[in-house]
Amino acid sequence: MVLKQLELQNFRLHKNTSLNFSDKLNLIIGGNGQGKTTILEAIYYLCTTKNLILASESDVVSLNENFFDTKGNFADLTNDESRVFYDSTKNKKSVFLNDKQITNSAEIIGKFPIVSLIQSDHAITLGAPADRRKFVDSVISQVSKTYLEILIEYNKILRQRSVILWKLKENYDKNLLDELDAWTVSLINAGTEIIKYRISFVNDFNKYLLKSYSQIVENLETPKIIYNTVSENIDSIKENFIDNINSAHNDELRRAMNLVGPHRDDFLFFINDLELKRFGSQGQHKTFQIALRFGQFYYIKDKLGKTPIFLMDDVFGELDTYRSEKISQHLNEIGQSFITMTDFSRVEELNLSKESNIIKVENGKTKIIN
Ligand SMILES: Nc1ncnc2c1ncn2[C@@H]1O[C@H](COP(=O)(O)OP(=O)(O)OP(=O)(O)O)[C@@H](O)[C@H]1O
Fold it and tell me: Name one GO biological process term (predicted).
């Protein structure tokens, strides 16, 4: 699947931008603050209906305007137009697929698969367990609607259970305790399913990670993800979950918190036998983050049988020439990609093919320069 054309209106610095893209590498070049990332942000909206950098919609509307509009034409087996329109006077976002308004973003998710490598990815390897869970959950959700549904259900259960725990803290009551038990059963059932999905994902994904990592680094380093959960053994997840939640009962009541379950799990990243978080160099962190995203790309491609669009925001500035070259070789092979860069002099490092497109961005205005 490729994005052929993009239109932006009142989208941050882009008052009126219309662009045609290459099916391969699209390089978006310009100085700081000129509106490069904004183009990736618009593409991400069209594929997911969500904001790439978790900005609020009202911040995206150009100053002194009251709406933004973005449209994209995708070509796959069929041609599709995706459109996201936001009216800031009503704080209302409307999403259209081929002119038909859609109410559930799940109708779009998976239709236009996308993988993005952006600055905030450093949190995946350097940040909190929640950042790693978010990465893993989003990759599994991209290939499994069932997983996404279980996850949504599980989060609902957590909220309900937390309300009961708070009520119990204020007022210890037998009926409430029975209610808590019922939610605990639901929590264990949904939580066990989540853990099973994650275990099988990590087993599978490690192969993709290894392949992607070895394409970027020159020396023999073996990356690995280990899932830290109630039990590594599929058959004893439920049993261990029950044991752990029983042992935590008094603590949960005292702290009024859900203390056991996959919402507390972590994923540990290793290079050879050393944990990245404790022993990794900055370069190893960056390489791991890039390999995770390339791994995600190949994983989704295999599982969905569709080639995702790849977005990469200002990554080359942090990489040496060797790694930049390696990655751009990779990019020439993977399908359609959109890469932002500030430094025009580094374009030569990138092994551009004839099919690549260079787009120059200056103060929200774009120009194709090849
Ligand atoms: N709602 C808005 N209306 C008008 N301009 C905006 C709005 N939001 C952000 N900007 C401007 O857009 C620019 C940031 O856009 P963007 O992040 O796309 O830049 P960039 O070229 O990727 O920059 P960098 O290389 O620094 O990451 C800034 O100049 C900012 O002031």
Answer: double-strand break repair
Enter the tokens of residue 273: 């036998």
Q: How far is 306 from 304, CA to CA, in rounded Å?
A: 5
**CA–CA distance, 36 with 38 (Å, rounded to integer):** 5
Answer whether residue 219 shows pLDDT above 80: no
Residue of 37, 119, 315 to mutate, ligand 1, most atoms within 8 A of C-beta: 37
Q: What is the pLDDT at residue 30?
A: 95
For ligand 1, what atom is nearest to the CA of residue 40? 18
Q: What is the ipTM of this complex?
A: 0.97
Residue closest by Cα to atom 7 of ligand 1: 12
Pocket of ligand 1 (CB under 6 A): 12-13, 30, 32-38, 59-63, 314, 340, 342
Residue 276 has a pLDDT of: 96
CA of 222 to the centre of ligand 1 (A): 38
Q: ∠ CA(47), CA(42), CA(114), 5° rounding?
A: 30
Could you tell me which of 231, 249, 248 has the C-alpha nearest to residue 239?
231
Domains and CATH numbers, the chain: 1-113+306-370 (3.40.50.300), 122-302 (1.20.1050.90)
312 CA distance to ligand 1 middle (Å): 16
Task: Give per-residue pLDDT as tens, 180-218.
Answer: 999 999 999 999 999 999 999 999 999 999 999 998 887
The per-residue pLDDT for 311 is 97
Q: What's the confidence (pLDDT) of residue 354?
A: 83
